[in-house]
Structures are given as C-alpha cells and as structure tokens.
UniProtKB/TrEMBL annotation:
InterPro entries: ArsR-like_HTH, HVO_1552_C, WH-like_DNA-bd_sf, WH_DNA-bd_sf. This is HVO-1552 C-terminal domain-containing protein. It holds the Pfam family HTH_20. The lineage of its organism: Archaea, Methanobacteriati, Methanobacteriota, Stenosarchaea group, Halobacteria. Keywords: Membrane, Transmembrane, Transmembrane helix. Residues 110-198 form the HVO-1552 C-terminal domain. Gene3D superfamilies: Winged helix-like DNA-binding domain superfamily/Winged helix DNA-binding domain. The chain crosses the membrane at residues 184-201. It comes from Haloarcula amylolytica JCM 13557.
Amino acid sequence: MSSPIETLQERTGTADESPRVLGVAENETDDVLDALASDTSRSLFRTLYDKPGTPSEIADRCDTSVQNVHYHVSNLEDAELIEPVETVYSSKGNEMTVYGPASDPIVLVGDRDLEPRLQQSMADVVTGLGLIGFASLFVQWGAEKLADSAGSSGVLAPASPQAGPVSGTSTLAWFVFEVVEPGVLFFCLCLTVLGMAALLTED
C-alpha cells in the first residue's frame, strides 16, 4: 500500500496533453498494441489517465502486486505510452517515480497520407481549446470584479416579493452572474460557435 506521506505530498507533475497519431502499418503501433495486450496493462494504463501515480499507488488501484506493476510499467514506458512526470519521497525517504500518460489522446489512422493532416488538426484543436480556456478564465475574473462592484448596489440581487417590477436586463444580469458562471457560459458559447462554423464549412 502507498504510504500516507507518499499520498499526501503535493503533486505538481501533469501528463502531456499533446496528441499522438499512429499509423496502423507502423512498427511503433505494433509495440503499442503489444504493450496493451493484457487486461492488467490496460487497467494500469486507464488508471494513469485518471490520475498519475507511483507503482505502489497503481498497485493499490489495480489490486495487484508492485512487482507486477513494475513489469507492465516497463512495457508501457518502452512503448512510449507512459512516462515519469515527477518524483516524490516515501516515508523512509526513498525516491518514488510518479508515472502518467505520455500523450493524450492517442489516435490510430489507417491511411499514411492522412497522418500529417490529422496530427496538425489535433494540435489545432488542443491549441484552440487552450486559448478558449484562457479567455474563459479572463472573462470569469472580469465578471467577478464587476459583480463585486455591482453587488453592493443590489443590482444583482433577486427581487423580493415586495419589490416593484424588475426589468429584463436586471433579471438577465442576476441569472448570468449568480446562477451561471460567466466563464463557463463563455466557454460553452465559444464551443457552440466553433461547432456551427465547422458544420457550415463541411456543407
């Protein structure tokens, strides 16, 4: 079992979120499929996508021995499916390697000519989502600043039963700032616009 110190240490390592595109006919793909051939290796691989971990933590999650984990970790690392993301220390002061996925997602393609275009498309998608996410954080930050200044005047407060008629603008402002997170709303709207643009482009 993983030690309390190992479990409670603050983790800073993260998995690589860049896509990996593999052609079906490549030798590299054979290595990947061989490494994922057993149920245990696939279970281990899935749990690392959920959360990076040390061999002892992985053994706890997959209900197997640490020795068995080391065997499958070695195979997955040789196939470049996982990689060390950071190092932590056990209660005895021993270094423990934390493993995580080497890439996310992994895409198999059958047409060699499609690989460069697909890889570029995947990279564009990841970059686009990152930019939208950053913009959403900025929108959320700005909205919270605006809400702090407007909240003191009661603009964003819901109307009481004794209050007079409430304008549609005030109701909308209260809904956006108090019910729906502005950053999340902005992110969803951007995804909707991009999805509609993609559909129109295909047509």
